[in-house]
Design goal:
By secondary structure, the chain is an alpha+beta fold. 36% of the residues lie in helices and 18% in strands. Strand 2 and strand 3 form a beta hairpin.
């Protein structure tokens, strides 16, 4: 009887350990973080979205001339080194063609419609056809001519959106900013439709690999000391940038601007949200 009980207890322990190992394994594999925190160590978690305006003075080191963080990311996607995703849920990868389409301004091609052609627009008279200037304009480009690209320049894409998990790790007794994804946004001022457009979202774990493998380009520029430039991966670890909160996870999935209003009210709400996260950590140590 005792032997049967011992076997039952051992089997139960093996099943529970196996379930725990499976849980941690799945969490780590599916987590886009560069340093995933096991679910069993998490006492508190809130998902936070932040905007990073690379034009701000504190963010200029990430946006130095010819070493813009957007340029590093875009070049990595073009070379096949980095996978872009449709949204920050990072479930649906973008093809290179889809990514480049998002990099291209949505504007009219200037071609005439069938109705305009039928109405006579675009027709030239005989004199124009015989004109040497007209003939020059009608010439086809050479076969080896380089195609003209009208995609956005990396310098124009100055807006990033960062998704992070604000996590209190009970094993280490401290709060972590566990960055999940970085997204490149087309600013509303550049979009003819008047709203921000997502160019692509990227797993932080993938970005760290790209930054580490391109040390000469992926630089956080130290304006005070050329001998102390840092890698962009280290800059994110050390939080060497300025950002503001735009959304905290909530049942309605609503941004702070939708809840409290835009402009000054939205900025005050973002400041209050940042202070609330800090206050939560401090409150854990009060008795």
């Amino acid at each position: 009887m005792k032997l049967v009980k011992a076997i039952g207890v051992a089997a139960g322990l093996m099943l529970s350990v196996g379930a725990m190992a499976q849980q941690v394994s799945n969490t780590t594999a599916s987590n886009p973080s560069a340093r995933p925190i096991p679910e069993s160590d998490i006492l508190f978690k809130k998902t936070v979205w932040r905007k990073i305006d690379l034009r701000e003075k504190q963010n200029k080191p990430m946006f130095s001339e010819n070493r813009e963080i957007t340029k590093v990311i875009i070049n990595a996607v073009k070379s096949g080194e980095l996978t872009a995703y449709k949204t920050d849920s990072v479930n649906t990868p973008l093809t290179r063609e889809e990514f480049m389409a998002n990099m291209t301004p949505k504007e009219s091609t200037g071609a005439l419609s069938e109705e305009e052609i039928a109405a006579g627009f675009g027709k030239q008279d005989k004199a124009a056809e015989d004109d040497a200037w007209g003939a020059a304009l009608d010439e086809k480009p050479a076969a080896n001519a380089a195609p003209v690209s009208n995609e956005y320049f990396p310098k124009q894409l100055y807006l990033l959106e960062m998704k992070e998990n604000a996590v209190f790790d009970k094993k280490r007794s401290r709060m972590y900013h566990d960055i999940q994804t970085i997204s490149i946004k087309v600013p509303a001022t550049l979009n003819p439709l008047g709203f921000e457009q997502n160019v692509g979202s990227f797993k932080m774990s993938d970005l760290v690999k790209v930054f580490r493998s391109n040390p000469d380009m992926a630089i956080w520029y130290n304006a005070q000391n050329d001998a102390q430039h840092k890698n962009l991966a280290d800059a994110f670890d050390l939080w060497l940038f300025s950002s503001y909160i735009t959304k905290i996870s909530n049942p309605g999935d609503r941004a702070l601007a939708d809840i409290y209003g835009g402009g000054k009210k939205g900025l005050l709400a973002a400041q209050d949200a940042a202070e609330a996260l800090i206050e939560y950590e401090y409150s854990l140590w009060s008795y």
